[in-house]
Amino acid sequence: MLSRSRRLLRILRIARRYRLHEFIDKSTLPPLPRLLLKLLPRRSANKAGLDRGQSLRLTLEELGPVFIKFGQLLSTRRDLLPPDIADELAKLQDKVPPFDESQARTIIETALGAPVTSLFAHFDTLPMASASVAQVHGATLHGGEAVVVKVLRPGIEAVIRQDLALLYTLARLVRRYLPDGRRLRPVEVVADYELVIIDELDLRREAANACQLRRNFEDSTLVYVPQIYWDFTRRNVMVSERIAGIPVTDLETLQARGTDLKLLAERGVEIFFTQVFRDNFFHADMHPGNIFVDATDPANPGYMAVDCAIVGSLSDADQYYLARNLLAVFRRDYREVAQLHVECGWVPPETRVQDFESAMRAVCEPVFERPISDISFGQLLIYLFSTARRFDMEVQPALVLLQKTLLNIEGLGRQLYPQLNLWDTAQPFLEHWIRDRYSPQAVLGRMQRQLPSWLEQLPTLPDMILNNLQQSGNTSARQVRELELRTSQLERRQQCSRRRQLLAIPVGLLALVLAVPGGSAHLATVPASSWGLAALALLLLWPRSGQQ
Fold first, then answer.
1. How far is residue 241's CA from residue 225's CA, in Å, rounded to a whole number?
2. Cα–Cα distance measured from residue 232 to residue 277, given in angstroms and rounded to the nearest whole number
3. How many CB atoms lie within 10 A of CB 383?
4. Tens of pLDDT along 175-233?
């Protein structure tokens, strides 16, 4: 806890140094951060000569990889950010300060068990690019193949785990103190992000992901994924094919070559939906620093994707409901949107469909009144998210990665071609996917793929049926015994109640006699035979043990 507090104080100190307090209204801050800002040294609040974009970028760089990746996501949303901030955050893609070249050599030689000079015919000591988690060096294999060598930053895992611990602390505070804290499920979201970013620390996972994506698009001209050289790949070092593409943000070069930017933007959307729905395996870190363009044929441009460390996939149910929800939004069928949210459990089952439908219509209709090419799907998601508070809709951690990727894709597409009509590009694809997935041929194909598994389990089917019947019978017998036990317990309680009532009669009579003046004296004159008859009467009235 002490280390997290120190980290929080460091964040506040860095924010103060770069004057980020000027970005916000301090009156909206909770009391503790507001007090800490006042207590920080005034001398640290002097970074003259920096504009707001530079201040934000330098703050994120100094805070480390978790915050840098957040800045990378923001840099793709030029429709949400002022140009000066977007331009500065774009420098986070591959211009993070590199670590020392001698450290890179040591890491490579330790991992691969040989000197760099024997591993490579040529090795560039100056890194080609430096990102938040790793940096990349150019090299040439002894066979003449041009490659890139990716090396993890030394000590990066400890830094990331420290930041994750702080994020967990912040998430728990949000869950506990904010009105919408539980609905937003911040701890689950951080846990989901932890799995993603920790996977980035094993370059063998990234290599395996790249191989899978390469196979998925092996016969396609839409996207090219570089080849992996497994003999030179370890947990903290990865060697892959070096590509010669144009950075997707270099619009000047793309335009000079006459690249069809409209087609390029539409293909980006097509690639996204193909990965999500056809392959169910999508590149989930598609910021501009990881995307290049093959403009060899300017009329038929394609993409080149690197850095496959973060990938995502959905369950069959999530795929189905996501596709139908998107189609329903495209068609403005708000009734179906509401029903699907209830069906898939994204809102509580007691939600009134007609109320949810009405809220969706109120949010979406003003958006759709604008020209379709001007509608930001990401902005629409923000509107829908704010409306969901009324219906206690929880954040779905499994879809957070997909939402982030969709925001990246739309931001990138609109940067290439501002008039991009994402809706017209996506709707035919989704309709085709649903039609094909649930066609008789597709259902028969899935049954054929499952047939070997069914045949393998067929000999055990009679035993499974018998066991289920026995379990059902045992359950029924157990339920009967439990019912008999509850009935017996109820009868015993009733008998005890009757006993108390019977005892109350003689006790009450005795109390009445004692209350009468001289009553106690009369008791002494009662014959012993009368006391015996009274006891016999009580015994006859008392329930027998077999009646209990």
1. 9
2. 33
3. 16
4. 776 666 676 677 877 787 787 778 888 999 999 999 999 999 998 989 999 999 999 99
What pLDDT, on the 0 to 100 scale, is given for residue 260?
Answer: 95
234 neighbors 204 (Cβ within 8 angstroms): yes
Taking a C-beta distance cutoff of 8 angstroms, is the pair 277, 433 a contact?
A: yes
**CA-to-CA distance for 219 and 519, rounded, in angstroms?**
111
In this structure, are residues 163 and 66 in contact, taking their beta carbons and an 8 Å threshold? yes
Which residue bears the tokens 């018998």? 466
Q: How many CB atoms lie within 10 A of CB 439?
A: 11
- Taking the model in full, what pTM does it have? 0.69
Closest among 440, 547, 412, 413 to 491, alpha carbons compared? 547
Inter-residue contact 326 to 316 (CB < 8 Å): no
Annotated binding site: 128-136, 150
Cα(238)–Cα(198) distance, rounded to whole angstroms?
A: 16
Q: For the range 10-14, what are the long-range contacts, defined as Cβ-Cβ under 8 Å and sequence gap of 24 or more? A: 11/63, 11/166, 12/36, 12/37, 12/40, 13/40, 13/44, 14/59, 14/62, 14/63
- Within 8 A by CB and 6+ apart from 438, the residues are none
Catalytic residues: 285
Given a cut of 60, is residue 407 above it in pLDDT? yes
CA distance linking residue 300 with residue 410, whole number of Å: 20
Beta bridge partners, 138, equal: 148
Q: What is the pLDDT of residues 65-121, one digit of tens each?
A: 777 777 776 665 555 567 788 778 877 755 667 888 899 999 999 999 999 999 999
Closest CA to 275 of 406, 395, 450, 423: 406
Rounded CA gap, 325 and 337, in Å?
6
Question: Which residues make up each annotated binding site for ATP?
Answer: 128-136, 150
CB 200 within 8 A of CB 157: no
Spatial separation of the C-alpha atoms in residues 453 and 450, rounded to whole Å? 5
How many CB atoms are closer than 10 A to CB 411? 24
> DSSP 3-state assignment of 109?
helix
Task: For 190-272, list the strands marked E by DSSP.
Answer: 223-224, 237-241, 246-247
Residue 518: what residue type? G
Number of H helices, E strands in the chain: 23, 11
> Could you give the angle at which helices 353-368 and 377-387 cross, rounded to 10 degrees?
150
Which segments of 369-439 does DSSP mark as H helices, in order? 377-387, 397-416, 422-437
Contact of 178 with 184, CB cutoff 8 Å: yes
Interatomic CA distance for residues 281 and 209, integer angstroms: 9
29 burial (CB, 10 Å; 0-12 / 13-18 / 19+) is middle
Q: Other C-beta atoms within 10 Å of 176: how many?
A: 10
Q: Hey, what are 518's tokens?
A: 């001289």
Positive or negative, the Cα torsion across 157, 163, 169, 170? Answer: negative
The four Cα atoms 76, 81, 82, 88 give a dihedral, to 10 degrees, of -50
Determine contact, residues 89/211, Cβ cutoff 8 Å.
no
In the chain, the amino acid numbered 83 is P
Residue with tokens 């179906």: 336
